Amino acid sequence: LRVVKFRRTGESSRSDEDVISGEHEIQIEGVRTELEPVELEDGAAVPKEFANPTDDTFMVEDAVEAIGFGKFQWKLSVITGLAWASNYAMEMMILSILAPQLHCEWRLPSWQVALLTSVVFVGMMSSSTLWGNISDQYGRKTGLKISVLWTLYYGILSGFAPVYSWILVLRGLVGFGIGGVPQSVTLYAEFLPMKARAKCILLIEVFWAIGTVFEVLLAVLVMPTLGWRWLLILSALPLLLFAVLCFWLPESARYDVLSGNQEKAIATLKRIATENGAPMPLGKLIISRQEDRGKMRDLFTPHFRWTTLLLWFIWFSNAFSYYGLVLLTTEFFQAGDVCSISSRRKEVKAKCSLTCEYLTEEDYTDLLWTTLSEFPGVLVTLWIIDRIGRKKTMALSFFVFSFCSLLLFLCVGRNVLTVLLFIARAFISGGFQAAYVYTPEVYPTATRALGLGTCSGMARVGALITPFIAQVMLESSVYLTLVVYSGCCLLAAVASCFLPIETKGRGLQESSHREWGQEMVGKGSHSPGVTRSNSGSQE
């Protein structure tokens, strides 16, 4: 008799009362339904109490852990990475290329150039919660497909914009679609076993770098000959490839269980087991239907109120500091060092606001180096996140960024300035990825997409505000600007430490209607490797 043993985590453990109180059970095909002796090859008999595995129950989390990481997850990683690279990284990177080009070609004043970037973040901010709600109500795959097709359609239309007002509206609609990209992480995380989850989500950052590098290389080839319109159209085409591959993507089995689609959840789990060449766990799949999903009030229940508020500030601080550092880097490098900023600003004020310079090959090279600087942050985060935990990883990232910001007070030279900015960007990008790991883990399936969506929306608020600090406030005081960024990240480090739940070593929550004590410690009421049956017997 082939028996599959699996480790039951704190979030997948169910008490006998849970099963009796109305949760449905679906029996997996191929298991025995009657107690009978089973003979082994040598003729020995297996006791009846161990011959029938149907008394055991398991949840989707248990099945994912038992099946493990395999061929299915590798395919899913590539497809999720493609969404991240094409729908997020490339469309965001194009902002730094499009703005100076239109500034020169259409003779736009500086405030209109800045508005081209801001309108994308406005679209992302306004749609993030909506996409999260759609994904919780109608499925992760549904929300992701609609957002990708939306971005593809308006991304191509942007290339045909005749005047400034048209491209402003169309890029805002592109931003509206980009707001749904984080839901790819929700779908991805729900198929990953616990041990691989943090590493896999962090490695999505590699696809971000690939997308930005590809966009810069595409701009080098297209801009001198075909111009910015073809760059916008060609940049949207990879989304078409992802849209086609979406037909391969299954719906999240966790979502199917919560929405009552038992047979579909079982079929998805069997498909994963077949592709991975692993057996399904024997027993009955516990189904806990929950009709009321994706409601904002669920984020503010007593269990999650502080977690939600602290995460909103953490995500705000991440985007505020990350995009602020990107803007400050350009300002510092053009000035030569921090102490030269004020004198340089006085000279710049005398120049016409319509003065423009097209991007040169050297500028594109600098964009490439800036992008590659994020790899060390991913590697460091990858190494420490499962050692010290998610909360401490975020806190450490914020603290290092804050410390590097304060060191800039010393009026360091160009070389030291480069090193400090390199370290600061590495850690703030790593902290951003740690937040992407923690957020899907801390919320239950019913509100996971909404939780991630609202956090992403708060991040866009930070991205909207940061130009006024990194560019406007910088004109008045360099040191006040650095204090704002350093202080914000210091507070975010404290907020990370005060998060009430550590998700390291804990399975994804299926339902919010659990015993809170188990959620806090991330362990079940019985030891690993032990499964509970309906009769209360242990294996």
TrEMBL record:
It is found in: Cytoplasmic vesicle, Secretory vesicle, Synaptic vesicle membrane. Its main location: membrane. Keywords: Cytoplasmic vesicle, Membrane, Synapse, Transmembrane, Transmembrane helix, Transport. GO terms for cellular component: synaptic vesicle membrane. The keyword Iron does not apply. GO terms for molecular function: transmembrane transporter activity. The chain crosses the membrane at residues 76-99, 111-134, 146-167, 201-222, 228-249, 303-323, 393-410, 416-438, 450-470, 482-501. PROSITE patterns: MFS, SUGAR_TRANSPORT_1. InterPro entries: MFS (IPR011701), MFS_dom (IPR020846), MFS_sugar_transport-like (IPR005828), MFS_trans_sf (IPR036259), Sugar_transporter_CS (IPR005829), SVOP-like_MFS_dom (IPR047969). Residues 528-539 have a biased composition (Polar residues). Residues 77-504 form the Major facilitator superfamily (MFS) profile domain. Residues 510-539 are annotated as: Disordered. The keyword Transmembrane helix applies. Pfam families: MFS_1 (PF07690), Sugar_tr (PF00083). It is a multi-pass membrane protein. Belongs to the major facilitator superfamily. PANTHER family: MAJOR FACILITATOR-TYPE TRANSPORTER HXNZ-RELATED, SYNAPTIC VESICLE GLYCOPROTEIN 2. This is Synaptic vesicle 2-related protein. It comes from Caloenas nicobarica (Nicobar pigeon).
